Amino acid sequence: MKILVVGGAGYIGSHMVRLLGEHSCEVITLDDLSTGNRESVTFGEFIQGNCGDRMILDKILSRGIDAVMHFASSIQVDESLQNPSKYYQNNVGNTLALLDAMSFYGVKNFIFSSTAATFGEPKYIPIDEKHPQEPISPYGRSKLMVEQLLSDYDNAYGIKSVCLRYFNAAGAHPHGDLGEQHHPETHLIPLLLQVASGEKTSLSIYGDDYNTPDGTCVRDYVHVQDICLAHWLALMYIMNDGRSQSYNLGNGQGYSIQEVINMVEKVTKQKIKTNLASRRSADPSKLIADARLIKKDLGWSPVYDLKDIVNHAWEWVNNPIKKY
Q: Which residues form the NAD-dependent epimerase/dehydratase domain (predicted)?
């Protein structure tokens, strides 16, 4: 198969490119490197550019592409509140350009990285696919808009899609040579590991008065390799005439910020210093996935738990040859 991976130099995209290469796919990565790392693309052809650039898309899609995997999104909730224009342009506008080009060249298979942020404040836990989608940030709304676009493009142009709604992606490749490297870093586990390694002095906890057992937010962490496995199964499904579908991805187990801190201290054997800060807006108290549908339909099941996630991420931090 010839697969275009948009955003394949980013955190999850680079792990997916590697998995596709290991399955002998012909991989083309398109990434503008605004947040990705060129060195993390370990298989196939790399093209630097934006998925909203029709000239670049013409050159790639005219060569014959079997499916597109789309990871190229802006993902910071706080930033989306401050600069919604960026999120609607990048997450919606550029995806619309990509879908139009796919329609023109007859590319009918699309795998989309969506998010639990499309659900907003949970009305019940765990969150299944029938849960109302009422996002509370421009980031979540931009992802929901793409999901709605995909439904319309299926009905009008026959582009089949699978939307995978991640809860909290985390961890690193089990070999320790590929991992999470955002600039700036905003995700909890890598920030904690920066404290454990001495790169940072402390971690800010944004609120300890949520309606949770210890007052800190509860999230469902899913290993990046488990996410990639779900993408692979979704690709096999859609390439074999599967209908468009959306799935939630998570372990179904929630951990509070304090519980994650405790796990990081256990794995790293380092004390984590924390500071209490004010709550952030658009931050639900609990997000836990009900992933039974993808398990039933595609046979997906997460392999790694929170301890594995932290262990693999810590191995990545301490790998001397992975620094780009």
A: 3-250
Q: Taking a C-beta distance cutoff of 8 angstroms, is the pair 56, 47 a contact?
A: yes
Query: Cα–chain-centroid distance for residue 165?
Result: 8
The separation between CA 116 and the C-alpha centre of its own chain, rounded to angstroms, equals: 10
Residue type at 260 in one-letter notation: V
- The type of residue at 18 is R
Q: 2-169+221-249, superfamily in CATH?
A: NAD(P)-binding Rossmann-like Domain (3.40.50.720)
Share of the chain above pLDDT 70, in %: 99
pTM of the model: 0.95
Spatial distance between the Cα atoms of 70 and 98, rounded to a whole number of angstroms: 9
Strand partners, 161: 110
- Domain ranges, ordered by start, for the chain: 2-169+221-249
Q: DSSP of 258-324, one letter per residue?
A: HHHHHHHHHHH--PPPEEEEPPPTT--SEE-B--HHHHHHH-------HHHHHHHHHHHHT-TT---
Q: Is the dihedral of CA 207, 212, 215, 220 positive or negative?
A: negative
pLDDT digit string, tens, across residues 279-302:
887 788 899 999 999 999 999 999
Angstrom distance (rounded) from CA 35 to CA 323: 15
Q: Is 105 a catalytic residue?
A: no
Q: Which of 139, 153, 247, 304 is catalytic?
A: 139
